[in-house]
Amino acid sequence: MFSMKSITMDQARFNSFRRMAFSVACCVLGCSVLSQQLVMAQVEYLGSTKLSGELSDKSGLSGMLETNTPIDAFGGLSAIDYTGSGDRYVVLSDRGAGDGAASFPCRFHQVVLKVDPKTRSIEFQLEGTTLLRDASGQSMTGSLSLLKAWDKPERCPSYDPEGIRYLGNSGLGGVVISDEYGPSIDQFSVEGRWVKSFALPPGFALSERLSPPFEQGAYSNRGLEGVALSPDAKTIVGAMQGPLVQDGRIEKKKCLGVWTRWISIDSSSGKTKQLAYRLDDESTGVSELLSVDAHRYLVLERDSNAGQKAKIKRIYLADATGASDISQVASMRQGFDAQITSIRKTLLIDLLDPAYGFSGADAPEKPEGIAWGPKLGDGRRLLMICFDNDFEPQIPTIFAAFAVGL
């Protein structure tokens, strides 16, 4: 296995060397095994930081929520994205403490994250907080009780933001956010005002609101999690956390299965297609999706366990080249026809590797967001990861950084 640390040649020469080594070694070890080894060899851990779970944001709000949580608590980070400027990122808080028990005003933040590989540390600075509002200016709130009671024709202001991509300098502008409640994919201005929603097929709607209920659609708390933006900003891809009801089975108030759907949306025309992605097993779900290029993605897949019980916290390199459009596939519950091609994936980072410090008794439950940062001096890409502390004051908010040679 090659180590990026030991290679000092420039990136072009390294890529040439890597291709030659791969060809030779394939003859000896077999391509399938070696391909995964070489992908993982392109990764180097650069450092992390842990922030107090009692940190306040810059929303300017005051008081306490129904969950006895400060309304200005900084935490619950479900997503991160690079702004393209210096070391500045946007990070997204989810619906708030208590799994929707609070009327938490939804928001995203502007932060600075400076990585120092020599000390394996990250310097953090919070620069601002932006509240999310609907078209009328009303605050988007994480209240689940409001969502369940909503019976009006207009859209409910309840919102569970899970993924964010920065559109600042693209033709779209602002940010795009995936909402698990809807589920929906929405565009907001940089000031946090709702601009538009991207239409999803009926089969992605919240199942319990369809008639008849629980026969198709997104299952509660297993809706849209990850969102990716293609490098040319022409395609938005949303990833379901788990199977749609038509693709899984409901047991003990859970929707179980291994096949999930991605929804690819042309940002100009609104045309969609669907792709099939296979989870490691029924215990895992997709937390985030990040574009590498026009056809490849990083996928953050994890279980819902912390500490010694944590088994799967992984980042995969997924390739959608040649993947079939499954828009007309009614159900993947029993698998699908052999002629249909699903998304392929190869392990890139096992976050439970003891070398990174996130394993054992201290293993965090929720790595939630991934984003590219500025290019590193040697040509590799900086990958930033944020961890969700569920607004628990005793649990730190964590940022981690890796160098990736893709």
Would you mind describing this structure in some detail?
This protein has 406 residues and is mainly beta. The protein folds into two domains: 1-41, no CATH class; 44-404, Tachylectin-2, Chain A (5 Propeller). 9% of the residues lie in helices and 36% in strands. It is built from three helices and 22 strands. β4 and β5 (121-131) form a beta hairpin. α1 runs antiparallel to α2 (31-41). The relative contact order is 0.14. Mean pLDDT is 90; it is low at 1-29.
Count every helix, treating DSSP H or I runs of 4 or more residues as helices. 3
Shape: globular
Helix content: under 10%
Please summarize the sheet with the most strands: 4 strands, antiparallel
CATH topology of the largest domain: Tachylectin-2, Chain A
Mean pLDDT: 90
In the predicted model, the low-confidence regions spanning at least 5 consecutive residues are 1-29
CATH architecture of the largest domain: 5 Propeller
Count of structural domains: 2
- The proportion of residues in beta strands is 35-45%
Distance between the termini: 16 Å
Going across the major beta sheet, what is the strand order? Answer: 1-22-21-20
Using DSSP, what is the number of strands?
A: 22
Please state the CA-atom Rg, rounded to the nearest Å: 21 Å
Question: What is the chain-wise order of helices and strands?
Answer: HHEEEEEHEEEEEEEEEEEEEEEEE
Helix and strand content put the structural class at mainly beta
Under CATH at level 1, the class of the largest domain stands as: Mainly Beta
